[in-house]
UniProtKB/TrEMBL annotation:
Reactions catalysed: UDP-alpha-D-glucose + 2 NAD(+) + H2O = UDP-alpha-D-glucuronate + 2 NADH + 3 H(+)
Single GO biological process annotation from the record: UDP-glucuronate biosynthetic process
InterPro entries registered for this protein in UniProt: 6-PGluconate_DH-like_C_sf, NAD(P)-bd_dom_sf, UDP-Glc/GDP-Man, UDP-Glc/GDP-Man_DH_C, UDP-Glc/GDP-Man_DH_C_sf, UDP-Glc/GDP-Man_DH_dimer, UDP-Glc/GDP-Man_DH_N, UDPglc_DH_bac
UniProt keyword list: NAD, Oxidoreductase
Catalytic residues as annotated in Swiss-Prot or TrEMBL: 262
Gene Ontology molecular function, alphabetical: NAD binding; UDP-glucose 6-dehydrogenase activity
Natural source organism: Agromyces cerinus subsp. cerinus
Record: residues binding substrate: 149-152, 206, 251-255, 259, 325
Pathway the protein takes part in: Nucleotide-sugar biosynthesis; UDP-alpha-D-glucuronate biosynthesis; UDP-alpha-D-glucuronate from UDP-alpha-D-glucose: step 1/1
Name of the top EC class for this enzyme: oxidoreductase
PANTHER family: UDP-GLUCOSE 6-DEHYDROGENASE TUAD
The protein's name: UDP-glucose 6-dehydrogenase
Length: 435
């Protein structure tokens, strides 16, 4: 099919490349000229495993083109809108102005029978509002909402083989569902479950899923604080409750908490939307989920100060990882970056390192000192904090690392190291909710 993808960030660039990989004829559109120039040259503007390969093959084959001009989308039968919906500073609500701008820019270019498909995460009610405008201004076109569930670091795989497909369609618009079936034929033939529903449900599925995941993480992080107060072990607790299939072990890893461009902003946006709907108490628990999450970062900073003997001033702290998760260069709302900045503000001489995230971290915090290798970061440190569980940090050899640092003290902010191995190599090891 002929497809356009409007907005080529973390979501859109992967979606456009994956659609071309499936054999569709795709044009990617973005207002950011630098991003488009890089993508057109076959170079992703960010780090995502597997993306360079499919982007390069699709651009070389001519199945994938990029443009800053929305008119280049005019030929497409299906238009995916994948622009950002960041958190508004004052209210916490999702800012849908980019979605509106992309949608209205697209309107005059819609061919007869074209299908506009929202992919961005939006407050419930957005699709119905846009569908009304479409009916008034381009009645020959239709709208569907098809939320995206990809995880950064697994974005290509998640797009090509999703867990499920959700289509929010207008009343009686079975044709929109069959067009989307055509787009996703490979996944459907492979047995991917598909849920066809109304706009509101589709919009809510997305934020409900992220709210549930965030709740699961804050639940286990709250347990980690109880474990710290009682000498219990939160990893054994997670293993034990996770064996109950109703609970499940995934997303029960305690640590510095969740970050990124999705979970934090999506729960805040969901709370704000419920408020707008007059449901003032309904999502109060998500406020607690957010607060518990932010408390984990503060707890790690407090533990660091404690381990340094009561003050961070003048002490050298190596922070391993700045991204919000491994296999991504994304530092949006990153707990690791927050911890590094907080310790620096307390007077510590912080050195950060990360395999892929340093450029983004320094763009946000040029005042941070960065080391390009783990070795350089560790050198002379009074305290090491493992903040993002990149494989390179999981595999650190405690004896070799011990020869580099000034003092053998480590806070394992992701509970991924073997406490016994580190302690027997002479380290003061501390996990999160681990005795
Ligand atoms: N990043 C993820 O893993 C992920 C996963 C699922 C859903 N989402 C949702 O997808 C949406 C996009 O997220 P993202 O992480 O890709 O954001 P992003 O900031 O990386 O990308 C958004 C892109 O949209 C472009 N843009 C803004 N206005 C535009 C316009 N009028 N026309 C064309 N391009 C425009 C920006 O230049 C930017 O490149 C959000 O709603 C997010 O919640 C993201
Ligand atoms: O047990 C866990 C699991 C995750 N995290 C943290 O939670 C955050 C989010 O992780 P993850 O969900 O894997 O990454 P995202 O790429 O942000 O993906 C989430 O957000 C996307 C955007 O909405 C959705 O599409 C995905 O389904 C949803 O998982 C990261 O900071 C992780 O370190 C934990 O602290 N403990």
């Amino acid at each position: 099919m002929r497809i356009s993808v409007i907005g080529c960030g973390y979501l859109g660039a992967v979606h456009a490349s994956a659609m071309a990989e499936l054999g569709h004829d795709v044009v990617g559109i973005d207002v950011d000229e630098r991003k488009i120039a890089a993508l057109a040259a076959g170079r992703p503007a960010f780090y995502e495993p597997g993306l360079p390969e499919i982007l390069a093959s699709a651009t070389a084959s001519g199945r994938l083109r990029f443009s800053t001009d929305i008119a280049a989308a005019a030929d497409a039968e299906v238009h995916f809108v994948a622009v950002g919906t960041p958190q508004s500073a004052e209210t916490g609500a999702a800012d849908v102005s980019f979605v509106d701008a992309a949608f209205f820019a697209l309107l005059p270019h819609l061919a007869d029978g074209a299908l506009v498909v929202g992919k961005s995460t939006v407050p419930v009610g957005t699709a119905a509002r846009l569908a009304e405008r479409l009916a008034a201004e381009a009645p020959h076109a239709r709208l569907a909402w098809n939320p995206e569930f990809l995880r950064e670091g697994f974005a290509v795989k998640d797009t090509l083989s999703p867990d499920r497909l959700v289509y929010g369609i207008g009343a009686g618009d079975g044709h929109a569902a069959s067009v989307l079936d055509h787009v996703y034929r490979a996944a459907i033939e492979a047995g991917t479950p598909r849920i066809v529903t109304d706009y509101a449900t589709a919009e809510l599925v997305k934020v409900a899923a992220n709210a549930f995941l965030a709740t699961k993480i804050s639940f286990i992080n709250a347990m980690s604080e109880i474990a710290d107060a009682t000498g219990a072990d939160v990893t054994a607790l997670a293993d034990a409750i996770g064996h109950d299939a109703r609970i499940g072990r995934r997303f029960l890893n305690a640590g510095v908490g969740f970050g990124g461009g999705c979970l934090p902003k999506d729960i805040r946006g969901f709370i704000a939307r419920a408020e707008e709907l007059g449901l003032h108490d309904t999502l109060a628990f998500l406020g607690a989920v957010d607060e518990t999450n932010l408390r984990q970062r503060r707890r790690v900073v407090d533990l660091a100060v404690q381990d340094l003997g009561g003050t961070a001033a003048g002490r050298k702290v190596a922070v391993l990882g700045v991204t919000f998760k491994p296999d991504s260069d994304d530092v949006r709302d990153s707990p690791a970056l927050d911890i590094a900045v907080s310790l620096q503000e307390l007077g510590a001489e912080v050195v950060v390192t990360d395999p892929e995230g340093l450029e983004n971290a320094l763009a946000r915090r040029p005042d941070l000192r960065a080391a390009s290798t783990t070795r350089e970061a560790l050198f002379g440190a009074d305290l090491v904090i493992l903040a993002t569980e990149w494989n390179e940090y999981r595999a650190l050899d405690p004896a070799a690392a011990g020869r580099l640092v000034g003092e053998r003290r480590i806070i394992d902010g992701r509970n991924v190291l073997d406490p016994a191995a580190w302690r027997s190599a002479g380290w003061h090891y501390r996990g999160i909710g681990r005795p």
